[in-house]
Amino acid sequence: MSKITAAITGVGAYLPEYRLTNQILETLVDTNDEWITSRTGIKERRILKGEGKGTSYLAIKAAQDLINKKGIDPKDIELVIVATATPDMKAASTAAFTATEIGATNAFSFDLEAACSSFLFGMSVASSYIESGKYKNVLLIGADKNSSFINYKDRATCIIFGDGAGAVLFEPNHEGLGLQDELLRSNGEGREFLQATYGGSSYPITADTFNEGKQYVFQEGKTVFKNAVFNMADVTERIIKRNNLTNDDITWLAAHQANKRIIEATANRVSLEPEKVMMNIHKYGNTTSATLPLLLHDYESQLKKNDKIIFAAFGGGFTWGSIYLKWAYNS
User: Fold this and answer.
1) Please, what's the b/e burial string for 195-234 (b: 16 or more CB within 10 A of its CB; e: otherwise)?
2) Which of 245, 176, 252, 121 is nearest to 7 (CA)?
3) For the chain, which terminus, N or C, has the lower number of CB atoms within 10 Å?
4) pLDDT at residue 79 greater than cutoff 70
């Protein structure tokens, strides 16, 4: 019997309707379109509006898009993983609620949190369940409502983040397609440079901290940028060399969409042509856990069976890594 590999067999996505453009941000904080575009590559980002609508709303919509496109029965899904840095609630699982709402009543489910690397790490976890032979349908969703912890008076963060969700289905493959190799890393010394300090168990929210706005995300931009550039490029180069790939072999680079300059630095490190680099940061900003599946959604029509894709991500924690995957179907 041939070895089981874990292949992506379907993609879905959801983006909120409201567009927060650079021009609108000019009215909220001391910035302008030229400044934002030149430093990040972002022109607009989507924001989820509506009372009570959290990350699960985005995840459910993305999952339903995939289910409708694939024509699958939700009851056949055996595991639902929601990769997110912004769960709906403390304690109550966002994945459990998402699974129930989409009708995946036979699935078990859990959240996976590794900041902007959440979906990348989720690809490893989902693939492991498939490769074990115990499961045949694993739904991995990357979803974040970043607007829930952004201070729109903080120029360092409000220009970067947006809301959105993407979903992929992993199934067994016997042709050697799907996930080929991974290189995943973390370093807890980096957490002081990118975090939402208050609201967790170390520093619970009080009336005073809430009034001071300490529930919002904080980022030391220069340190995060420097670490992201080095680490994301490093693991990308290493996984390419480890698999004896040349530039001609690689069809696409799917890098986390945090900053256009970081993406370009990663591509330059491995001498990859711009036309092989997936890019949609200008439309959505940094959607954290959703950036990689949203790239697959936006480029799905261009993907062909046997395409060699290198995924890369970097996030708070610090967390980072790279995955080599062979695409399994013609769109």
Assistant:
1) bbebbeeeeeeeeeeeeeebbbbbbeeeebbebbbbbbbb
2) 176
3) N
4) yes
Instruction: Check 22, 256, 259, 297 and give the catalytic one.
Output: 256
Structure tokens at 89: 């609630």
Query: Is residue 286 annotated as part of the catalytic site, yes or no?
Result: yes
Give the pLDDT confidence score for residue 14 in this predicted structure.
98
Contact predicate 232/183, CB 8 Å: no
**Each residue's pLDDT tens digit, 171-201:** 999 999 999 999 999 998 887 777 776 667 7
Quick one: angle between helices 260-269 and 221-242, nearest 10?
A: 30
Is 174 among the catalytic positions? no
Distant-in-sequence, close-in-space partners of 34: CB < 8 Å, separation ≥ 6: none
Give the confidence band of 316 by pLDDT, cuts at 50, 70, 90.
confident
Question: Cα–Cα distance between 330 and 307 in angstroms, integer?
Answer: 10
Distance CA(94)–CA(90), nearest Å, equals 9
Residue 137's pLDDT is what? 98
Phi, psi of 24 (to 5 degrees): -70, -40
- For residue range 137-147, list pLDDT tens digits in order: 999 999 999 99
Cis peptide before 311 (omega within 30 of 0): no
Q: Supply 127's token pair.
A: 């693939």
Is 116 considered catalytic here?
Answer: yes
Q: How far apart are CA 294 and CA 104, in angstroms?
A: 22
Give the pTM.
Answer: 0.95
Q: Which two tokens mark 17?
A: 């309707």
- Amino acid symbol at 298: D
Amino acid in the structure at residue 57: Y
Task: Tell me the HSE value of 255 on the side-chain side, using a 13 A CA sphere.
Answer: 30
Active-site residue identified among 116, 137, 259, 297: 116
Q: How far apart are CA 202 and CA 73, in angstroms?
A: 42
- The strand ranges marked E within the chain are 5-14, 18-21, 44-47, 79-83, 108-112, 138-145, 163-173, 178-186, 194-195, 218-219, 252-255, 308-315, 319-326
